[in-house]
Amino acid sequence: MAFKIAALNYSIFKCSSYSYNYAPENIHVDKPTDQSSRWSSDSNHPPQFLILKLEQPAIVDSITFGKYEKTHVCNLKKFKVYGGLTDDHMIELLESGLKNDHVPETFPLKNEIDCHHFPCRFIKIVPIQTWGPSFNFSIWHVQLHGVDDSDVVRPCMNWYTNYREKEAIRLCLKHFRQRQYVEAYEALQKKTRVDLEHPILTELHNQLVTQGNYDACENLITRACEEGLFEQYISDQEYKPKWTPIEPVSAGSESFDNRPGMRGGHQMAIDLHTETLYLYGGWDGNQDLADLWSYHSPSKQWTCISRDTAEEGGPCARSCHKMCLDYERKQIFTLGRYLDSSMRTECNLKSDFYMYDIENNKWTLITEDTAAMGGPKLIFDHQVVIDIEQQTLFVFGGRVLACTTEGERNSTPQFSGLFSYHIPTNTWTKLRDDCSELRSRIGHSMLFHPKKRILFIFAGQRSKEYLNDFLMYNVDDGRIEIISDGTKKEMTGSDGRSQGISVGPTAGINTIRHFLKDFSKRSVPSAGFTQRATLDPQTDEIHVLSGLSKDKDKRDNVKNSFWVYDIPKSKWSCIYKNENSGQQYWTKMQHIEPVPRFAHQLVYDHVRKIHYLFGGNPGKESLPKVRLDDFWCLKLCRPSPVNLLRRCKYLLRKYRFQELSEVNPQSAMIYLQKDLAAVIDHNDTRETQEFHLLASTLFRSGIEENDSYDDKNFGTGSRNHYDRRTELFDLLVEFFPENMTQPKGNLVDLIPLC
Amino acid sequence: MAFKIAALNYSIFKCSSYSYNYAPENIHVDKPTDQSSRWSSDSNHPPQFLILKLEQPAIVDSITFGKYEKTHVCNLKKFKVYGGLTDDHMIELLESGLKNDHVPETFPLKNEIDCHHFPCRFIKIVPIQTWGPSFNFSIWHVQLHGVDDSDVVRPCMNWYTNYREKEAIRLCLKHFRQRQYVEAYEALQKKTRVDLEHPILTELHNQLVTQGNYDACENLITRACEEGLFEQYISDQEYKPKWTPIEPVSAGSESFDNRPGMRGGHQMAIDLHTETLYLYGGWDGNQDLADLWSYHSPSKQWTCISRDTAEEGGPCARSCHKMCLDYERKQIFTLGRYLDSSMRTECNLKSDFYMYDIENNKWTLITEDTAAMGGPKLIFDHQVVIDIEQQTLFVFGGRVLACTTEGERNSTPQFSGLFSYHIPTNTWTKLRDDCSELRSRIGHSMLFHPKKRILFIFAGQRSKEYLNDFLMYNVDDGRIEIISDGTKKEMTGSDGRSQGISVGPTAGINTIRHFLKDFSKRSVPSAGFTQRATLDPQTDEIHVLSGLSKDKDKRDNVKNSFWVYDIPKSKWSCIYKNENSGQQYWTKMQHIEPVPRFAHQLVYDHVRKIHYLFGGNPGKESLPKVRLDDFWCLKLCRPSPVNLLRRCKYLLRKYRFQELSEVNPQSAMIYLQKDLAAVIDHNDTRETQEFHLLASTLFRSGIEENDSYDDKNFGTGSRNHYDRRTELFDLLVEFFPENMTQPKGNLVDLIPLC
User: CA angle B45-B50-B56, nearest 5°?
Assistant: First the structure.
């Protein structure tokens, strides 16, 4: 929906406190030069707040904070914004912070529920932290933007009223069904025509809770699984990383010759069609390499294509170059290299550019110097990606190698901008110079999303500065969008929670944005230099493996960690972290998990959802020349539908067994040994334990349910079948998509108590 | 209920974060000498928390925080505690802060809802502020106390489950009735047997909303008012102070001679039976006075009983003495005085003690020196109260006058302890010396509650220190209880909100305590020296009039303010505040409101609910000798039942008129002019304005309800009678006691949105 977004008029409705002369009304005007043109609380004791009242209910799109012309200790380092139709029932619209500078900042506000816009009449700003500790909170200027045209707002208001009404009724229906208030349930349903859930779940409830027909339930659940109803649940689960060392099939006696040796600063690329990896060059600790290898994944076979590509008309030995592969045309391109400053000469500082034709096993020198063709100068630690559809390479960043004669050693380093190379016409185009909008860098990540046609650029280093920004470059119109400028302190707590905020990358200026459902799940990987990243255009995810820091001073940072960025949800999650750094630990683990490293290579087969990791520098201070030659496969696992189905069956059979054991311990025993045992996951220790416990209940004197102090049912006495089956039903519906099921919440939990 | 309260076992269930080595489990042990024996968050960014899980559900009575042996920047200056049966549905149990010292602190926790104890399984501690700004939060040791005996907890759990169930059903019933889901309403009510409200309100709903029988409604409401049903509403309203200057009836020509002159440091006492005030002594700016006056309130007549009591065998001229009156036996006692250091001699530093027999107009010197009788030495700025039933005086505090010979001017001031004096046996008893448990002081307040038999002691000064504590001394068993130790920074925001907490004074160690319903209403008067306080044993309230500070440095403090402390609710509220200090303002206002002052006198007639204020020092720097002789009467007003009844009738007639105007503008006009006009409060500008507006709606073309953007009904179109009458019904039930009415909340407002 694209509306005409305009500034919204508001008045000050309420404020927690204010200091003399710093009345809240001051925020109406933007006077960056006036020290006193602000609201200031009278203390820094929470809770402090401002409640603004809009002239009319509106869909509020964004909030802009004006600031003082200089930094100011009273600026809000952290704040929240709430909104609602009344001042006593509001929902959180934003949690963020201001930079301590003079630049006004605009933040999009949550204004959708369930993909519908909702109106607000009141906006509450709650300061949480100031930049100067224990200073009072000041807000200089606030502007709200949105739509208050009643033609737009009225339908939203209608939808919102109906939505709340419907949700209220659904909570009632759920409660009544749980309590077996059949008549009230039916009367309410008949009158309101609100559905509690999808008919398949009503059927499940009937079969399970009312009838106790467990066989029918298993059939229902099986059908649901087959129809893909568990997919949403699965996609909401966190990945679990599974590392497997790849042992190549040895061909012949000299097996070690038949796989690439230790190295760092090499390149890898994958041909998705043939499932073949190509590995080229690198530094083995003593010298640059020029060997080219392929690895055929189905047969687990390494093949040495060339020991020295220079001998075959290809590039000379090199490291810190970049490589990419066009699997449609079976071409590999390689650009850039690192040369020790002592080795540099006028002549070898030219940026040669090669193409390797896989099918014909033939190297072509496209040009001796891309700079002469309008492309980049000789660079290293840059990034190259390929747009296979448009046959275009994108090259961004990297440091330009310069001749270090005449004491130029300390001259300012030069970083290379963004270039494109159109393969069919052999044309270089400079898209951007190194500039403030797109700051060049080394050691960053750049990924091309072939469907969105966007370059994702993040992290990297620029001289002493570690960058932590996250940008999108639209390759078709050259537009740059900042997902996160990285200047906000995005703390990552020990539970992986973050204080930061990332705004949806696809959020346009004039569209009203989708927002994260769960603000607490936002996390970001820390600023990095040696991370390796891949992109999955099917799942719309970016994967980042953070490695060891190249900078020794930073080696106490997080070691191995694996992050997934969900592009549509603008959400980072850390799915794996190993902060161990002891040598003993890693000696023990070396065949189970890759040791932390840098200068390694990671490539991704997004068709088969497999990452490949090879080599790198383990950063051993005592053995600086050691490089790695280990080869790993990484799969990001989520429960499979089959797995979930088994889990559902296990739950059904467990409850069935418990019912059976009350009336007929004999047949319960048989059921346990046969039917229940059949669906146990013997790898799951908890389930196995539970299974053994279940057996033991049979031999107790009588059924002692609730023998322990069970919170849920404490005080309600022993439960009947209906209640227990309801509990099971609630467990089972967790696997179904939320829009099909009864509400998650319970009416009694919403009762305000105080 | 007195249970056996014991320490409760808990485990750490969850924590927001922790710093290396400072794991949350450390809080189990109390090692004040061990720097590292604590939980410490890994940042000071909110939200940080610890969730503790109790071994068993328990009624949690209190929480004790152990501390480090020294002050520590990471100590919690402010925190909250929540509790619940699950970790995702908790309610606030406490908001408080720790002192930055080494002394463990114990806080009672809210554990009652609706006068019933409720159980918790999870306790969440949420740090909000540290003592050192921007330091991480540390908690050294936590102990929880309460009852987890299942014989005690089980019934509470049952009650709690049923309570929540009942409240949920009542919300449903309210919603269904509003929406006219008649069948669902009846089915639910029949099944659950939960009553939505008192039958009289159901009848009101029927007559009003269903039938539209407005006459019957007026009758119902009138009956409710007569039966005292509005009393609770009235008692929940804030007082409004009404000051009236008392113009004494002049007797004869020399009227000014017939009323006491300007003075400060005088004493007043009231005879409740005869409604007569007695005023004695004081300092007129130049000299001490010895005149004794009476003021008969019904006749508004001052009488000078004696120009100089010394001449009649009474005390010599004096100020800063204290006086109290036994209205049963018509006796006035006076003790103590101030003497300028230059005037002191060995001889006149004896503490004489006089009794005045009102009926016989006769002074008796009880003793020349109470110190010689085991009573206090000569003191000033102390407090004396009388227990009329037991014929006992209590004397507390005051500074002992010492002879200032031989350069003793700078010797440590001596403060007097707590004494009792039994009148019939003429016996002095020293109850407490000046000690840490009951620190002596000057300029404090002490009030005796004759029913509770408790002395309430608060505020005052001790050398340079202004005290802000609030204590109870039980006169029968000598037990001291601290309501608030006053060391917590109890900020009072500009809206009168406070961050502090005051714990119920009647809370015993082994009883589980009542708590404030609305934590946001807690406020406390600031530490004071010149406050004047009174106690109403019928309403269980303490009143405090804060005056001008004697200390010139503190004169920029709050000027006049009036506070009421509700003893059973442990709640302070500020009902009046006037921060004006300009001379011009007070010249204009001098006959409307008393100017700020100190050394004045305030007495209270709790039978007629009238305060009397006389004289004092206005603290004019330019005219240091000026004292006041103004005389004021203060009434604390709340709406009367008659007033409320009128308001209800007004509302009923307004809605009736609106209905009428839609069908018959002609008779609506007549109704407006006759019936509606009859119930208008013409002093209420809003009501009067509304009345005029109502008339004008008749002359518009058609009925344009919702012509403005009305939030509530936006999108639902024009409302029918049922909805409008429901709105009126909701307004009317506000005046009824909460336990009689439908729930305040609305189901739709409880729907979680995000």
Answer: 165
